[in-house]
Structure formats: C-alpha cells, structure tokens
Design goal:
Length: about 200
C-alpha cells in the first residue's frame, strides 16, 4: 500500500513544475485601409464590442438605434475634411472584418474639437436625439428602450471627454487613437495588437 501511494505521489508534478496547455495560434490578420463601404461592419463591431460594457448599455439600451447612430456618425467622420483620419481594418483569410482602429492627425494650430466630429461615433445620437437627448419632444416617447436609462449621461460623458482631450491636446500637433474595436468572436487572437502595429 505504501509503495502504491508513493508511486502516486511521484506522478504529481513538483510545486516548481507548471502544467501548460498549448496556446492556440491563429494566423495574423491582414491590415487594410477601411473605406466607407465598410461602415456597416465597423458599426456592428463597435456595438457588439461595447455591448458587455454596462456603462454603454446604460447610455444606449437599444442596440439597433445605437448601430444606426454609429453608422451615421462614421459616415460623417469619413467625410470630415478639416483633419486627416486613418481608418484601418483587420481582415481574416475569408475576408471577414475582425476589428478596426481609427486615428486622427491634427496640426497644432487647429482650434477646439468640433463636438460633431471626432467623438460623434463614440457617443452616437448626441446631435439628433437618438439617445433621448434634449432634441426629443417633451412627453413624446414612442419606445422607452430608445432612451438612456440615465437621461443626460451620454451628453455628460461626451462633454467631459471633450474637456480632457482639449486640455491635453489643444494647440499640440498629435496623432490620437480614437477607436480600437475587435469583434467578440475574434478577441484574444492578436487582432488588436496587429491593428496597433
């Protein structure tokens, strides 16, 4: 009996040994410029990547309306002539967009950020009442889910983010990473790292 117990103990790795499961490897994505034709996929990734975030769910409980607002925001940003945008997408071998990133290049002499520009697709619906902001007619609620759980929270987030960005970056030439989103099904595969490289 003692011999049997001893052989069982010998089979257990020592405390210094580490059992490792082989890490699954994935082929690296191809990084390409994103175009206006990619907007529906970019918006879908934006919404699904943020859906686990409770703060964003408080701001925009209706994902369909958020998706529509993000599409509209991205369309306007793609057409913003006042400063340069870099949009890239990570694509797998099948051509599926796995994630995307957006940067702005701004000269030092550019004034305060336009609230309908840089952050409009991060805080969708601020200008058109999609999230239940002050543009909605008082007392007219067609769908309660269209409104944020905490009225005014999206506007508050946007305005305070704007103040911080202006404080840090106004009057300085800079490149700003505005967005980096990876679709939940492709997370933890090196997609975000590939986009940043």
């Amino acid at each position: 009996m003692t011999r049997h117990f001893s052989s069982l103990l010998d089979a257990i790795p020592s405390s210094n040994a580490v059992l490792k499961t082989p890490k699954e490897t994935f082929p690296p994505p191809t990084i390409l410029p994103a175009t206006e034709q990619d907007i529906p996929a970019l918006a879908r990734i934006h919404v699904t990547a943020l859906s686990p975030n409770l703060l964003f769910r408080l701001c925009w409980p209706n994902q369909t309306r958020q998706y529509e607002a993000v599409c509209a925001g991205l369309e306007s940003v793609f057409k913003t002539p006042e400063f340069e945008w870099w949009f890239v997408k990570a694509v797998n071998e099948e051509g599926t967009i796995m994630g995307w990133g957006a940067w702005t290049v701004r000269p030092a002499d550019l004034g305060s950020r336009d609230s309908s520009g840089t952050l409009s697709f991060l805080f969708p619906g601020l200008m058109d009442g999609v999230n239940g902001s002050s543009d909605e007619e008082e007392g007219k609620i067609d769908d309660v889910e269209d409104f944020p759980s905490i009225p005014g929270l999206p506007d508050y987030m946007h305005s305070h983010t704007q103040v911080i960005l202006d404080d840090w970056l106004l009057g300085k030439k800079h490149v700003l990473l505005n967005s980096l989103f990876v679709a939940p099904t492709f997370q933890r595969r090196g997609v975000g790292t590939a986009i940043l490289r």
